């Protein structure tokens, strides 16, 4: 076997099987494995250029490109680590592990640029959370079957927050849509607001929160499902229409505003998803 340290370039055809990292294996020379498919500046540039609302097809294309490029990163890392484990020579293994670290660094650069582009599109403003809640509930009640009852329990005296209005409204729409799906066309969806001291949320004395809760009378979740509910692309039968994105987006909207999201649920007792968002101080 030759030990010439020439790079092995891996090119991935378009079919899904060939993109599976478990199918990538190196043979022959002990050499670093490199990757040429990634184009981080192009993806970041495309995201930065979308100041207006992006068509779903464009977002799908960007998502597919990112998924393909990041899958290439995983494939190269997997191949490099496997080769390092098989060569039996520390010096040769170090060549593969060093290459894996370099590719991981490129993957981090890609995700950092995507995150930066996402934050660049954010436009936080002061707004009345109660007004947005009322608007979302009114629209949902009109669209839902008559057998779904909506109840509003808006008890918060203070509800001015600082958040991107588009993200916040979409988060509420996702939560209400999930609740309607969870009751299966016949049940009750309760939307509530209340003020909670920061000490009761995160132990933060001196900063209060408004907590928006969306409760359904559906079948509820077992603990193992509840723990995964915020995971991207995780779905249950009731939330299938959201394709596993709705709860993730709601959690991210709260996080960007400095808040948190939580779920309370038990089988046979329904589900409550809450967004705790700090009240505006400026």
Number of helices: 9
CATH level 4 superfamily of the largest domain = Histidine kinase-like ATPase, C-terminal domain
Give the beta-strand count: 9
Described by strand count, sense and barrel closure, the largest sheet is: 5 strands, mixed
Biggest sheet strand line-up: 4-6-7-9-8
What helical percentage do the residues reach?
A: 40-55%
Q: What is the rounded distance between the termini? A: 68 Å
Oligomer: single chain
Question: Which CATH class of the largest domain is shown?
Answer: Alpha Beta
Decide which structural class fits the backbone.
alpha/beta
- Strand percentage, roughly? 15-25%
What is the total number of structural domains? 2
Q: In the CATH hierarchy, what is the architecture of the largest domain at level 2? A: 2-Layer Sandwich
| CATH domain fold name of the largest domain | Heat Shock Protein 90
Order of helices and strands: EHEHHHEHEEHEHEHHEE
Radius of gyration equals: 24 Å
Show unreliable segments.
1-38, 49-53
Shape assignment: elongated
Mean pLDDT: 77
Give an account of the 3D structure.
The protein is an alpha/beta fold. It has 2 domains: 8-120, no CATH class; 124-278, 2-Layer Sandwich (Heat Shock Protein 90). It contains 9 helices and 9 strands. The protein has helices at 16-19, 40-48, 56-87, 90-120, 129-143, 165-182, 198-201, 223-226, 246-256; strands at 8-10, 33-35, 124-128, 148-154, 160-164, 187-197, 208-216, 260-265, 271-278. The strands form 3 sheets. A 5-stranded mixed sheet has the order 4-6-7-9-8. Strands 1-2 form a two-stranded parallel sheet. It starts with 7 loop residues before the first strand and ends with a strand.
């Amino acid at each position: 076997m030759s030990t010439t340290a020439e790079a092995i370039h891996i090119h991935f055809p378009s079919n899904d099987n060939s993109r599976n990292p478990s199918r990538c294996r190196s043979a022959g020379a002990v050499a670093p494995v490199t990757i040429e498919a990634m184009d981080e500046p192009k993806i970041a540039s495309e995201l930065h250029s979308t100041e207006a609302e992006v068509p779903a097809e464009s977002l799908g294309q960007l998502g597919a490109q990112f998924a393909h490029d990041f899958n290439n990163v995983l494939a190269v890392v997997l191949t490099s680590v496997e080769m390092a484990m098989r060569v039996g020579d520390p010096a040769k293994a170090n060549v593969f592990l060093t290459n894996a670290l370099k590719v991981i660094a490129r993957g981090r650069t890609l995700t950092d640029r995507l995150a930066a582009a996402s934050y660049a599109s954010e436009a936080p403003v002061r707004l009345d959370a109660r007004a947005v809640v009322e608007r979302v509930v009114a629209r949902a009640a009109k669209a839902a079957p008559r057998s779904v009852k909506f109840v509003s329990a808006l008890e918060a005296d203070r509800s001015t927050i600082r958040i991107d209005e588009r993200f916040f409204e979409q988060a509420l729409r996702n939560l209400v849509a999930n609740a309607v799906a969870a009751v299966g066309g016949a049940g009750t969806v309760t939307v509530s607001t209340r003020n909670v001291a920061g000490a009761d949320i995160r132990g933060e004395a001196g900063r209060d929160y408004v907590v928006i809760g969306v409760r359904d009378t559906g079948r509820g979740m077992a603990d193992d499902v509840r723990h995964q509910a915020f995971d991207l692309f995780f779905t249950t039968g009731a939330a299938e229409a959201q394709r596993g994105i709705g709860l993730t987006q709601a959690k991210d909207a709260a996080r960007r505003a400095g808040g948190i999201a939580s779920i309370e649920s038990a089988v046979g007792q329904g589900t409550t998803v809450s967004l705790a968002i700090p009240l505006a101080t400026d």
